[in-house]
Amino acid sequence: MLIITGMSGAGKTLAVQSLEDLGFFCVDNLPPALIRKFSELLLHSANAVRRVALVCDLRGGAFFDQLFDSLTELEEHEIEYQILYLEADDETLVRRYKASRRKHPLSANGRLVDGINRERELLKEVRERAHVILNTSRLRPLELKDLLTERFRAGGDDPVFSVNVISFGFKYGLPIDADLVFDVRFLPNPYYVEALRPRTGQDPEVYDYIMGFQQTEEFVRRWFEMIDFLLPQYENEGKSQIIIGIGCTGGRHRSVALAERLREHLQARRAVTVTHRDVGKDGER
């Protein structure tokens, strides 16, 4: 059983749609008090339902307060569950609500930002207990779907340990959900090669330029040794995901190339997705 919760506007509807595509039986806005009864219904059903996703959030009003009691009941009856918590930064949530023209469930007739702040505070304890936390601020819908597919793909009843690699530019800020961040601004910068400047680290000529330096190869060798050591440690500790940020100045050349190099290294053995957060922006400086 997967409990989906989190901030309003963070992508729970898209998450449900993606999980339905993966074969989950999904229920939206289920009052937490009914979780235990719902699980009993499934257990006694003639149809074998093994993968269930339930959305429980503050739309349930006062009923949401019973979430922890319901989770305790699941544990007492040895029903396995995980909590997927979706969030986004305030600016993104405001923009999404403005675009949808819908009211925030906690804003009533007040300011939208006040409702967002109140919701974030009310969900603080739930977030602390979440098994998987996804920040969707800079994810396109397809990227979110890909992440959910990698993590909860059919073929196993448990989420797959996955590696999410994000290239970014320091000038645009750190990815706030990164577990590990690597700064590759010490590598030779293609921005200062006129023919390479308008291209990205995904372009073969830019990629080969960056990888052609001895310090790049030395860094990659030592970097991969550390990554290969760390990932099993995180997995053994029960983490279902690890988010690796790779940053250069503008997020267009060096970080992109290194993110692709890490994908090549991991994809044969790990579920890995790569997001180039800032590749379409101004580029290096």
Automatic annotation (TrEMBL):
InterPro entries assigned: P-loop_NTPase, RapZ-like, RapZ-like_N, RapZ_C
Keyword tRNA-binding: no
Binding sites annotated in the UniProt record for ATP: G6, M7, S8, G9, A10, G11, K12, T13
Every RapZ C-terminal domain range: 162-279
Alphabetized GO MF terms: ATP binding; GTP binding
Residues noted as binding GTP in the record, renumbered to the chain: D57, L58, R59, G60
Keywords, alphabetical: ATP-binding, GTP-binding, Nucleotide-binding
Gene3D superfamilies reported for this sequence: P-loop containing nucleotide triphosphate hydrolases (3.40.50.300)
Highest taxon listed in the record's lineage: Bacteria
GTP-binding is among the record's keywords: yes
Domain (RapZ-like N-terminal) ranges: 2-154
HAMAP family, sorted: RapZ_like
The protein's name: RNase adaptor protein RapZ
Origin species: Ferroacidibacillus organovorans
